[in-house]
């Protein structure tokens, strides 16, 4: 239970947590894992330039050491995209969990809208792109964005009435 000020006289009243907030909180751990996996895959690929590029669920058909044949800057580009991308995905995941816990749980509308934005902008985009990646490579990376989207949809649907009552 949390307390919330009822009026300008700061009378404290007990309020129940918004239903569904835990689903959104847990959803944040999916991209956290994905971001850390992306970062680790990049580090492993750079550290082992002659091994096939590892992605956690298997390997792709190229080596980091062979990227120079695509151009002298190709390896540097893949390294920066993997590192920056992994860190940013993990940071966005922490934001989702923090907003769910400290914004949605007590029923703040801004938190619900932020989480909806995160679902639509990040979740749906990643699900589409990961599905296309699966179609081209056979690597089932789309399982993480699908899990994220399912948890986010369930949490937002469950919390909507309480937040907008």
Write the layout of secondary structure elements.
Blueprint: E1 2-5, E2 12-15, H1 21-27, H2 29-47, E3 52-54, E4 59-63, H3 74-104, H4 109-137, H5 143-163
Antiparallel strand pairs: 1-2, 3-4
Overview of the structural elements:
The protein has a two-stranded antiparallel sheet with strand order 1-2. The chain has helices spanning 21-27, 29-47, 74-104, 109-137, 143-163, and strands at residues 2-5, 12-15, 52-54, 59-63. A hairpin with a 6-residue loop joins strand 1 (2-5) and strand 2 (12-15). It is mainly α and 165 residues long. The protein has one domain (19-160).
Proportion of residues in extended strands? 5-15%
Please tally the β strands and state the result.
4
Helix content: 55-70%
Low-confidence regions: none
What characteristic shape results from the CA principal axes? Answer: elongated
Instruction: Count up the domains.
Output: 1
The biggest beta sheet is recorded as:
2 strands, antiparallel
Structural class: mainly alpha
Strand order of the largest sheet: 1-2
Mean pLDDT across residues: 92
Characteristics:
single chain; 165 residues; two-stranded antiparallel ribbon; 10% strand
């Amino acid at each position: 239970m949390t307390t919330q000020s009822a009026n300008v006289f700061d009378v404290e009243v007990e309020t129940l947590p918004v239903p569904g907030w835990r689903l959104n909180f847990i959803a944040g751990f999916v991209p956290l894992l994905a971001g850390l996996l992306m970062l680790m895959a990049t580090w492993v690929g750079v550290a082992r330039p002659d091994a096939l590029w590892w992605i956690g669920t298997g390997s792709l058909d190229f080596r980091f050491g062979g990227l120079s044949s695509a151009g002298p800057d190709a390896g540097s580009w893949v390294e920066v995209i993997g590192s920056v991308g992994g860190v940013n995905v993990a940071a966005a995941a922490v934001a989702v969990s923090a907003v769910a816990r400290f914004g949605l749980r007590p029923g703040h509308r801004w938190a619900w809208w932020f989480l909806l934005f995160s679902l639509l902008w990040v979740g749906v985009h990643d699900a589409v792109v990961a599905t296309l990646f699966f179609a081209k490579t056979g690597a089932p990376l789309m399982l993480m964005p699908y899990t994220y989207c399912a948890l986010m949809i369930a949490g937002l649907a469950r919390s909507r009435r309480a937040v907008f009552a």
